[in-house]
Structure formats: C-alpha cells, structure tokens
Amino acid sequence: MQNAAFAVRGLDWAYVALDVPPERLEEAVHGLAALGFAGANITAPHKVEVARIVGSTLPSVNTLVGLEGYSTDAAILEGLPVERPVLIGDGGAAAAFRLALPHARVFSRRGEWPPDATGADLVVNATPVRDEVLVELEPGQTLIDLPYPRTATAEAAAAAGATVLDGLEVLVAQGAASFELWTGVPAPVSVMRRALGLPV
Description:
three-stranded antiparallel β-sheet; five-stranded parallel β-sheet; globular; 7 helices; alpha/beta
C-alpha cells in the first residue's frame, strides 16, 4: 500500500517490514534515526513503549517522523458523527481511540465486561479477538473493527444490518495520515485502497 503510494507520487522511497523483539526496541527506534529513515509505523505490541522511548505525551505511538511520535490509529474517525461511542479494548490502539473519544464508554477484560453497545452510535473493537462475537450491533449503529481480516464481531454486525468499517478501512485511513506526515504531500488514497483490494 505505502510502496504503491510512494510510486504514484514519484518518491524514491521504500516501505519495509522490520521485526523487532521487545528487548531490542529502544535500540531499534534510535537506529532508525541513525540510519536516516524518514519515519516508521509501529504496531502491536510496541506502541505504548515507543511513546515512552521517544518522550511523547501521547499514550501510544504508531507513527514516527524521525524521533517525533504521532498516532494516526484513530484517523478513521474523521468525518464520522460520533455522539455515544463505545470502545472495546485496552491496548495501544485502544489508547489512541480513548484519547480521540474521551466520552466513550470503555469495556475491557481487565475492567467492565462483557461489552454493552446499547444506545451507542459507534462501537470500536480495538481488541485482537477474531473468533468470538464480542458485542451484538443493530441497524443504525457503526462498528469500527481494527483487526483484519474481518472478525466474527464484524461479520455478525454486518449480518445484523449495522455499518462496518473493517480493519482494511482503518489501515488505509491511518496509512494515509502517516504518509502525509512523512512526505508532506497528499496521500493517493484511491491508489492505497486499490493496493489492498478495496473499492475505489
């Protein structure tokens, strides 16, 4: 997705995946800057720790520009009307949505459980749970489902007539926001969607 975006914008850049064990994380983050990387995306389980490493005031970081930390995890919310949100989860991505939706009712296995979406207009599933239906939705409700491919929760919500923005939609939104932070140019969203097999 990002490499397709770089190519269409005429940027001689490359997006590569780098596996980093937790005990080497701080070394790796500083190594990115030392090697001249323009930036990076951070994924689970490193988002909260990277925020600490770079001294960010954010609870979690999924995008670096040099050693400056940003979170684009909740970019999917842009333009969505949200009045009564429910957030499920307590990891790094959930922290980004909690910051973006401070009035959300929050459910996690370490706190209040099971989730209750009664009266919610938006439900965010920020857990890695794939095979269990965590909450049942109805027509008129919207689910943002972070994992991909689609989870059992997303499939059940779609079957019930709720609107579902699945993990690939979330990936495009956060990826486009990251692209613009790194490059300073508009993200070619249609190209990024096509690269993931999404309708343009």
